[in-house]
UniProtKB/TrEMBL annotation:
Protein's recorded name: Glucose-6-phosphate 1-dehydrogenase
Electron transport as UniProt keyword: no
Family label: Belongs to the glucose-6-phosphate dehydrogenase family.
Catalytic activity: D-glucose 6-phosphate + NADP(+) = 6-phospho-D-glucono-1,5-lactone + NADPH + H(+)
Presence of the UniProt keyword Aminoacyl-tRNA synthetase in the record: no
Pathway connected to this protein: Carbohydrate degradation; pentose phosphate pathway; D-ribulose 5-phosphate from D-glucose 6-phosphate (oxidative stage): step 1/3
Entry binding sites for substrate: H181, K185, E219, D238, K343, K348
Originating species: Epilithonimonas pallida
Ranges for domain Glucose-6-phosphate dehydrogenase C-terminal: 192-486
Active site: H243 (proton acceptor)
Length: 487
């Protein structure tokens, strides 16, 4: 393994993300021989625990959340890399002590190791930590030291600009890894392979042949224990500004000249810049918001959003968004990109649907209506690509029917790595491709700014969709007005 010796410092190591995602990802990478030969995971937390206690806690969680089994041999080898370190986020001394710890580990490596700081904490602490890291010179080597930051990255364009500015006082852009975990999904990464690794799709991938594009990320879960966080966030900030716009970029971007990370990120920024901004007085025409009321999901009664813990009984926060975007460039002139996402929907289902234009003239009789071709990229939980086309029905007459040709990931019997395995491995290797650059984040905020402002200023009539449905009626109107349908 060629990876340099690395000290991985996790802020918020006793939190949910660390136990469910980060430690399992490191453990699975370790078993696959993908961790550096020399590494330490330094888990920071406020409480006074010893290593033994913390390692046991991690073991129990690995047993619950790891993709691969926790065998005694693997665990024995892995656990020795974990150190618990008591730390207060806002105390200078804590960072001085951390520095000493890092130097101690470096002398064990025999070299100044790389440093990977993972901020698995609420967004309010980013500035405090970043400043302390600067003051204690913890990330003084731009070629070796990196910081990983979770979303939400700001809460609007202005705050994102300020956050980027603040981080730039401690880190160079190439040291900053802003996570959008959707980019680590196998099915999302495959869009690049599918589009640019084949010769037959790309010639059709434009306004001459494509009628509309749909991106749906529907969730069955509600806000669970995150009510008070979600109250300040809402679906537009939580899902559209990041995950949905990133998927849209993958579908719409021009071919990058190479797989170099800035090249790919440049092409995505081109798309974000070309998205037509929604005029402030036309938000209702382009975007729909919803909030779930009571309903039934899988036969079980479920409460309304306004009844969830931590939620205002008169809340104006949206749990559903549908929007229509246009991309003003040569390729996508007048092709609507419909996006929608919601919580407590009928089913968990994320997909991209590319609707091709109907034939200009049909050779077949009226009794043989033709369905226009459609390509469906299922992101999750189905993971497949389906091409829908017309065929002849077996029989004596010339009757047609639509059929599907399917590529199914699960048929390949290959292990699918967890998203965080992909992202953490990339961060260890210094590959920024799947992470958000500052301008990507800012442009994406810019795209949703007028919607944010309009919705903040107007009280919605909520709840307007039943839990367990496909969202408010207005979401259907949005696409049907143009003669289209949600899949
Ligand atoms: C997160 C959002 O970014 O993505 C959550 O904050 C959402 O609200 C989650 O549930 C969905 O991710 P996934 O990978 O389960 O589709």
């Amino acid at each position: 393994n060629v990876l340099s010796a690395t000290n991985i410092v996790i802020f918020g190591a006793t939190g949910d993300l660390a136990k469910r995602k980060l430690f399992p990802a490191f453990y699975n990478l370790f078993i696959d021989g993908r961790m550096p030969e020399n590494f330490n995971i330094i888990a920071l937390g406020r409480s006074d625990h010893n290593d033994e206690y913390f390692r046991n806690y991690i073991k129990v969680n690995l047993e619950a959340f790891s993709r691969k089994n926790v065998t005694p041999e693997h665990w024995e080898a892995f656990q020795s890399h974990i150190t618990y370190f008591q730390h207060q986020l806002d105390e200078e001394n804590s960072y001085k002590n951390l520095n000493r710890k890092l130097l101690e580990f470096d002398s064990g490596f025999g070299v100044r190791g790389n440093r990977l700081f993972y901020l698995s904490i609420g967004p309010n602490f980013i500035s405090t930590i970043s400043n302390h890291i600067k003051n204690a010179s913890l990330a003084s080597e731009p070629d070796k030291d990196r910081i990983i930051i979770e979303k939400p990255f700001g809460y609007n364009k202005q705050s994102a600009i300020e956050l980027n500015q603040l981080l730039s006082e401690t880190f160079e852009e190439k040291q900053i890894y802003r996570i959008d975990h959707y980019l680590g999904k196998e099915t999302v990464q495959n869009i690049l392979a599918f589009r640019f690794g084949n010769s037959i799709f790309e010639p059709l991938w434009n306004h001459r042949h494509i009628e509309s594009v749909q991106i749906t990320v529907a969730e069955e879960v509600g806000v669970e224990t995150r009510g008070s966080f979600y109250e300040q966030t809402g679906a537009l900030r939580d899902m559209v500004q990041n995950h949905l716009l990133q998927i849209l970029c993958m579908v719409a971007m021009e071919a990058p000249a190479s797989l170099e990370s800035d090249e790919i990120r440049d092409r995505k920024v081109d798309v974000l810049k070309s998205i037509r901004r929604i005029p402030a007085d036309k938000v209702d025409h382009y975007a729909v918001r919803g909030q779930y009321g009571k309903g039934i999901i899988n036969g079980v009664e479920t409460k309304a959003y306004r009844e969830e813990d931590g939620v205002d009984p008169d809340s104006n926060t949206e749990t559903f968004v549908a929007a229509k975007f246009y991309i003003d460039n040569e390729r996508w002139q007048n092709v609507p990109f419909y996006v929608r996402t919601g919580k407590k929907m009928k089913e968990k289902q994320s997909y991209i649907s590319i609707q091709f234009k109907p034939l200009p003239h049909s050779t077949f009789s009226d009794t043989n209506p033709l369905s226009a071709n459609r390509l469906i990229i299922n992101i999750q939980p189905l993971m497949d690509i389906r091409l829908q086309f017309m065929t002849k029905k077996q029989g004596l007459s010339m009757a047609l029917r639509p059929v599907e040709m399917i590529f199914d990931y699960f048929a390949c019997k290959e292990d699918t790595p967890e998203v965080y395995e992909t992202l953490l491995q990339d961060a260890l290797e210094g590959d920024l491709t799947l992470f958000m650059r500052s301008d990507q984040v800012e442009e994406a905020w810019d795209v949703v700014t007028t919607i944010q402002e309009d919705w903040a200023n107007k009280k919605a009539i909520f709840p307007n969709y039943e839990a367990g449905s496909w969202g408010p009626k207005e979401s259907f109107d949005l696409v049907e007005r143009q003669g289209h349908n949600w899949l």
